Amino acid sequence: MTAEAAAFAAPAAKAERAARLRVVAGWLWSGALLVLLGFLVLYPVAMLLLGALTNTNPVVDGFGVFDLSLANFVTVLGNPNVHGALANSLIACTGGTALAVVIGLAFSWIVVRTNTPWRGFVAAASLIPLFVPPLVAGVAWSILGSPRSGLINTMLAWAGLDWRIDLYSMTGLILVFGMYYAPYVYLFTASALRNMDPSLEEAAEIAGIGPVRTLFTITFPLIAPAIISSMLLSFIVMLGIYGIPAVLGAPANISVLTTYIFKLTNWSPPLYSTAAAVAIILMVVTGALVLLQQRVLAGRSFTTVAGKAFRPRVVELGPWRWLTLALALLYLVTVVVLPTLALVVAAFRRFLFIPTAGSLFEMRHYSLVHFEAVFDNPLTMRSIWNTMEVGLTTALLGGLIAFAIGYTVHRSSAPARRAIDLVATLPVAIPGLVIGVAYLWAWIGLPGGLYGTIWILTLAFVARFMPDTMKSLSTSFLQIHRELEEAAWICGKGRIGTIRTIVLPLARPGTVAAMTLLFILAIRELGSSLFLYTSNTMVMAVLLLDYYEGGNTGKTAAFSLVQTALLALLIGVATWLSRGSADASVGRAG
Amino acid sequence: MKSILIALGFASALAMPAAAQDFGPPELIAAAKQEGRLVYYTANFAEVEQEVIKAFNKRFPEIKVEMVRAPGGQLITRVKTEAAAGKLSADVVDHSDRALMTDLVGLFQDYAPPNGKDYLPESMVSPKLWPRVTLVWSIAYNSALVKKPPKSWMDLTKPEYGNKQIGEVIAPSGGTTWTRVMFERQVLGEDYWKKQAATDPVLYPSGAPMSDALVRGEIVMGPLLYNIVYPKKRDGAPLEIFFAPEGAPVNPYASGVPSTAKNPNAAKLFLNWCLSQEGQTFMIKELGNLTSLRQPPVYPEGFDPKVVKVWLPNFDQYVKLHASWVEEWNKTYGYRQ
């Protein structure tokens, strides 16, 4: 070999070696992520499947004595009560979703596309239901809408009206579902409406088409992907909710899949294997919906975002703007003010026996006794402290892991990206109530002191909310143009350096938002906490259920108010902290 | 006069120094204080158990009781799974379903309270498991809403109380309800369930939410454990409670100290206190329990032993009949299972 050839060959070999190293590093990185996800997601799901396929508790009976059979599935699929619960779930969620879409879409149109007064306030207040734990919503609406003792019926009787409402019914479930999950639809559709190119609407206007027809033939079809996305998401979320159907459905003997699963785990003796089999049915339904969503949305998501700068068109409503304001306020009163008032009455009243409207205003019935009892319980303060700790660790650890996975999936060319994405999305289809048992089965036997610490709760929440965090983060990743990273590479920055100096600062608002969301979800989460808490790691959601199951609406309401106030405070602080970054986010979004 | 005597008896029991009452040998008490804490798993109502812990801490303030409360089924799963993984953190396990506890008896260590011989043998399923609490069924109604109150179990089958006025706790809810359901069929008649179900009662997963619904006026009457309604009545809720003449079904719990208890002395002292004259008197007087002591120190308010016939299920039948009868009950009441 000549000296010249050698001079060319050396860098080529070096480059080849570097490329090979990169491939190996890529595989190692992807492998590490897959191992982590395997531990967090696949292993517990495998335990759940195992539970459904046997009649044993894998921890108690050992892993060796499998008597695998489809008997549980056969029994469950042939059980008319499961059919009933499945049908009820589908009816309640379909009705709830339809209502949520109507309310959510109307709201986003009012807020984004009209000159309704106080839209900013209306927009902020309409998100409040998102932070209310479903059990609290259920309790508040049972105080208001019970057929016999509900405050609304008491007031109707007082006003001499003959109408009575009964929320202990399928209609009640649909109404409360629809009201509480409308903000999901609002969140998705408002940003789509905001980012939509108005030129087609302008063309319609020029062509002489009226505003209502434009709305239904141009505007809504254009944001159809966002509407479908939000519909499916609200449907899936409703499918997994326990608190609302537990409170409103149970008195009318209306079972849905989640309350049915809970019943199975609550009976004496408990039927976990059957519960696991029912949970797998729920997972299949949810999984099918997620696939459907992906198929429907494939290739459509970005059609509304054009490259040029524009402002959304605002419809001048004239005097009609007061009607839209009245509608928005009516929603807020119904969803925020009335339930809060109901909780206040229940929390301060000694006994929630209100035979007449006059009795509601007799001050001798009110006292601080429930708050005293709640704070007299040593578990209250401990649960608040534990919840904060779990919320914070979940937000930090979950944010970090979701960032790593989100970056790998969206911004890198690492191998097995699709598999990583798929496994990380899997928990969306698993109902929390049963995954709690799966986590217990999966992780209790691990060496070391994981069980009985808050870390087992943290890991469960990180795994359970991985899809939500990823979803929230991926938007920020997709917004950052690749050329910025390429510029950093040209300037000689390595992968880590680029992440640190380019991606991290730009994705910060999204990351903070994702972590705040994770924090809130962790604070609210009940299902997966139920089996993982111990006397030292009691969390607020479990204590709230304890108060509810303990049959004391007063204490439940008092503790709900404490929890709500704390959440409001934390969200306020988080908003204030991320004020700068939120502005930056809005600025960048145009 | 009688209630004054009872009150005096209770006051003097509490006023007695610890040494005079037998809570265990001094070494045990010293070791328990040294441990300073215990983890207490119970299936009883959390609100009720908080009162018990408070009363225990009046006597032994040095010992912190950390409670984990779960419904019967969940509690058993937790105990089994933790025990299998070698991580049972309970120092005391207290459960309403004696049959389920019998299956787990191997997990418990030998334990007997100082006054063990004073307990009725038929209330126990193993020498390791003790009837820490004994709960009794009563019938309660909302006194502000019911003009013509029921007077017996059979009254709860009357059509005039139909149309969702009556509440019932479901049979598969746990040991105490299973006892009531057995009583209804064995004492009140084979067709009692059918007649009662014909009134279209509202079904509740447990007695606690049902008692709340009764206070609120969601339902107006129904059978409830005395210990969940009595404290509410005592605090001023519009309730009346009575023990029906046909009998009062009684369910003793099974409580024991696991072999793996990290604080065995504190656990034994806690159970010793609960099972002592003082502990039982407190639970009867303040919480509305009965007792499985041969000689009850007092009776709960409204309970006249000369009139009320206490009914304890035959334990063999309690175990054997459970599955088939609960299934029949579910069918009769149209409870979706």
Structure overview:
The complex is a heterodimer of chains A (590) and B (337). Chain A is built from 27 helices and no strands. With 590 residues, chain A is an all-alpha fold. Chain B has 337 residues and is of the alpha/beta class. Chain B folds into 2 domains: 167 residues, 3-Layer(aba) Sandwich (D-Maltodextrin-Binding Protein, domain 2), CATH 3.40.190; 146 residues, Periplasmic binding protein-like II (D-Maltodextrin-Binding Protein, domain 2, 3-Layer(aba) Sandwich). Chain B is built from 13 helices and 11 strands. In chain B, strands 4, 7, 8, 9 and 11 form a 5-stranded mixed sheet that branches. A 4-stranded mixed sheet of chain B has the order 2-1-3-10, with helices on both faces. A two-stranded parallel ribbon of chain B has the order 5-6. In chain B, strand 1, helix 3 and strand 2 form a beta-alpha-beta unit. The chains are: A mainly alpha (590), B alpha/beta (337). Chains A and B meet through helix 2, helix 4, helix 13, helix 20 and helix 25 of A and helix 3, strand 2, helix 4, strand 6 and helix 8 of B.
What is the number of strand segments of chain B?
11
Main sheet overview of chain B: 5 strands, mixed
| Percent helix of chain B | 40-55%
- Mean pLDDT of chain B, to the nearest integer, reads 89
CATH architecture of the largest domain in chain A: Orthogonal Bundle
Work out the helix count of chain A. Answer: 27
- Taken in chain order, the helices and strands of chain A follow as HHHHHHHHHHHHHHHHHHHHHHHHHHH
Please give the CATH class of the largest domain in chain A: Mainly Alpha
From the N-terminal CA to the C-terminal CA of chain B, the straight-line distance is 50 Å
Q: What gross morphology of chain A would you assign?
A: globular
Query: Count the helices of chain B. How many?
Result: 13
Total discrete domains of chain A:
2
Uncertain spans of chain A: 301-308, 580-590
